[in-house]
């Protein structure tokens, strides 16, 4: 590949030669917990009390987050799926907050000769934490790699983030089946279990600022809500479901999306519900936010309230989810730019949400807050 070819790469259809599976990261041993949490919360104003509390959650599991093992399992399945399709692309692993760090992975990929990389993020969503921050990770990693390997300036690298996938049929089907399986684990009663979806809370102000102009923002909240509705429909619940939030962080005086899952269980119990199925639609694997906040805290709350409780599986290594990742890679590995409507009211057609090159912004309605700043 010549330099001239490479510099034309952005926007022109040139085949990709590797995949980067990009995730959040988590500690692998107790000594990792504090430095990991410092990486996550650097400059974000998360109070020390909250960090102590979250450190305890990790230490409860021996200081090991399940997230790295789960990601490696997904990568293993993905490699198998790509091989079975005859797609000859190696899959590398990098994280935002813990080893293998994306900065190191990008250097490793470049040294191995890769110049065109499709990035699959383990977040299905738009908004800052779910999308823009992953683009920031890609940009930061590329800068770090360029500082370490000056040859990148003349023989550049293209890292293209794949589009958001919260609306993809296979994502919805895999979660829909997980809900059906969870319902099947509860004793048969005249009234079916209440279906409650949950996703990571974010600050209300952050949620407001992203989304199509005139829509009032709330891109993340509206996507989660649309995905929950689609999963509920798939699971035979029609429009009967609740959507709540979990794992809020930040200082207590700052408003985050509510209600919290545990507060909501109290309400559900006073309304006479006997059983609940909780579906963590906001996450793709059973990492710490799921096994602590749902399998410990929410499960205990339900028990205290006398509610039958089952948590539905995340999509993880469900064959349909792995096939979806392979589909996304297959669809775009030839170099065509992901375009299309995103089925959110008020959104225009164009480059699909989340798809961006080298950490740049994807679309005005996602990466760049759509509303004009208030006049002063
Ligand atoms: C939208 C969203 C997702 C879903 C999209 C995606 O999957 O990316 C997500 C995923 C995750 N969040 C995770 C862990 C943490 N999130 C924190 C803090 C925060 N999350 C936020 C949002 C989200 N987070 C926000 C706005 C903060 C406040 C500070 C900041 O703006 O950054 C903190 C700090 C301590 C605290 O909880 O206060 C931790 C430890 C793990 C790994 C679990 C494991 O180790 O197994 C995963 C997958
Ligand atoms: Fe988080």
Automatic annotation (TrEMBL):
One of its GO terms (molecular function) is ferrochelatase activity. Involved in coproporphyrin-dependent heme b biosynthesis. Catalyzes the insertion of ferrous iron into coproporphyrin III to form Fe-coproporphyrin III. Its EC number is 4.99.1.9. This is Coproporphyrin III ferrochelatase. Pfam families: Ferrochelatase. Pathway: Porphyrin-containing compound metabolism; protoheme biosynthesis. The keyword Lyase applies. Keywords: Cytoplasm, Heme biosynthesis, Iron, Lyase, Metal-binding, Porphyrin biosynthesis. One of its GO terms (cellular component) is cytoplasm. It catalyses: Fe-coproporphyrin III + 2 H(+) = coproporphyrin III + Fe(2+). GO terms for biological process: heme biosynthetic process. PANTHER family: FERROCHELATASE, FERROCHELATASE, MITOCHONDRIAL. It is found in: Cytoplasm. Coiled coil: none annotated. Fe-coproporphyrin III binds at residues 65, 134. Fe(2+) binds at residues 200, 289. Belongs to the ferrochelatase family. SUPFAM superfamilies: Chelatase. The gene is hemH. The keyword Metal-binding applies. CDD domains: Ferrochelatase_C (cd00419), Ferrochelatase_N (cd03411).
């Amino acid at each position: 590949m010549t330099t001239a070819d490479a510099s034309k790469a952005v926007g022109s259809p040139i085949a990709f030669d590797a995949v980067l599976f990009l995730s959040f990261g988590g500690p692998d041993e107790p000594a990792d917990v504090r430095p990991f949490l410092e990486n996550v919360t650097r400059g974000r104003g998360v109070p020390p009390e909250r960090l102590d509390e979250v450190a305890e959650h990790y230490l409860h599991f021996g200081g090991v987050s399940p997230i790295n093992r789960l990601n490696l399992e997904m990568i293993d399945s993905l490699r198998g799926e790509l091989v079975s399709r005859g797609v000859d692309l190696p899959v590398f692993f990098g994280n935002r907050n813990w080893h293998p760090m994306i900065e190191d992975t990008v250097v490793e990929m470049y040294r191995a000769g890769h110049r065109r990389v499709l990035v699959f993020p383990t977040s299905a969503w738009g908004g800052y934490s779910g999308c823009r921050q992953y683009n920031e990770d890609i940009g930061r990693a590329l800068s770090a790699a360029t500082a370490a390997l000056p040859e990148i300036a003349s023989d550049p690298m293209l890292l293209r983030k794949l589009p958001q996938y919260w609306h993809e049929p296979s994502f919805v089907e895999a979660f829909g089946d997980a809900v059906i399986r969870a319902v099947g684990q509860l004793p048969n009663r005249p009234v079916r279990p209440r279906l409650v979806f949950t996703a990571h809370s974010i600050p209300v102000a952050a949620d407001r600022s992203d989304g199509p102009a005139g829509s009032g923002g709330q891109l993340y909240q509206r996507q989660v809500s649309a995905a929950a509705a689609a999963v509920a429909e798939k699971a035979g619940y029609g429009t009967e479901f609740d959507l709540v939030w979990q794992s809020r962080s930040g200082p207590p005086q700052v408003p985050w999306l509510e209600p919290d899952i545990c507060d909501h269980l109290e309400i559900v119990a006073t309304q006479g519900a006997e059983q609940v199925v909780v579906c963590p639609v906001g996450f793709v694997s059973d990492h710490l936010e799921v096994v602590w906040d749902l399998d410990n805290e929410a499960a205990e709350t339900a028990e205290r309230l006398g509610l039958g409780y089952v948590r539905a599986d995340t999509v993880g290594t469900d064959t349909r989810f792995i096939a979806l990742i392979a589909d996304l890679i297959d669809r775009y590995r030839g170099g065509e730019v992901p375009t299309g409507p995103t089925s959110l009211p008020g959104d225009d057609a164009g480059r699909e949400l989340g798809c961006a090159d080298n950490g740049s912004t994807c679309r005005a309605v996602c990466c760049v807050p759509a509303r004009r700043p208030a006049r002063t």
